[in-house]
Amino acid sequence: MRYVSFRRPDGTPSFGRIEGETIVELATDAAPSLKAALTDGSLSDLADGAPYAAADVVLLPVIPDPAKILCVGLNYAEHVKETGREQKVHPAIFVRYGDSLIADGQPMVKPTVTERFDYEGELALVIGKPAHKVAAADAWDYVAGYAAFNDGSARDWQRHNIQFTPGKTFPGTGGFGPALVTPDEIDDLAALRVQTRLNGELVQDQPVSDMIWDIPTVIEYVTAFTPLSPGDVIATGTPGGVGDKRTPPLYMKAGDKVEVTIGTIGTLSNRIIDEQ
């Protein structure tokens, strides 16, 4: 299944299931959001509601209100190499905030305080049930589905000190969408390629199998130090090819179009605008 969060034509937030060019609403009083339906376990049992033409609604981030967004840094060897960093024994983890997220088709906001606004195409996963101290062998059972992610990064702010967070969570810089794609829709997740295009030019292209720490390992590590709830998000890291490490550097600017495609999971597309 493919699920989206959206605003109805009257502006009311809702969620539903994609069927071709139609979105079938699933929201009820009992489960008013996709996160709520994951939390109470009702997602697969909800009755169909009103159908909407996809063109008549405005998408929201897949999960508009995650309690936690955790991001994995330096999870592809090519990216580690281009940064000149040493590969560590454990993954680097930093956080984003909910107000940094934007949906597919919505503008991605370049902060006024940086000219080094970089793309990072990533595979994101959404947690489907409470997860704490999960063993890697059991980790797949906790994944509700996947989406594309663009971890828009203000590189200078990222490097003000040793912590990444200041450069990673400006409002409106994290693309997330277009849909939550359930695992049964994907034949071979590891074979899917994380591809980023800037103004049509392919700038990142590596398979999920190139991750240094695979998804079960990441879930085991993260849930060892913090409990996760349904609707929480983990962005699993970006491949090599980031703009900051190119010669000359390649940064995003107003008017650009950035697309993150991950095989059958789909394409996340955003235009860049300047912060107002």
Automatic annotation (TrEMBL):
Domain of life: Bacteria
Domain Rv2993c-like N-terminal: 1-39
GO BP annotations, alphabetical order: carboxylic acid metabolic process
Descriptive protein name: 2-keto-4-pentenoate hydratase/2-oxohepta-3-ene-1,7-dioic acid hydratase in catechol pathway
Organism: Sphingobium scionense
GO molecular function per UniProt: isomerase activity; metal ion binding
Family: Belongs to the FAH family.
Residues annotated as domain Fumarylacetoacetase-like C-terminal: 68-272
Keywords, ordered alphabetically: Metal-binding
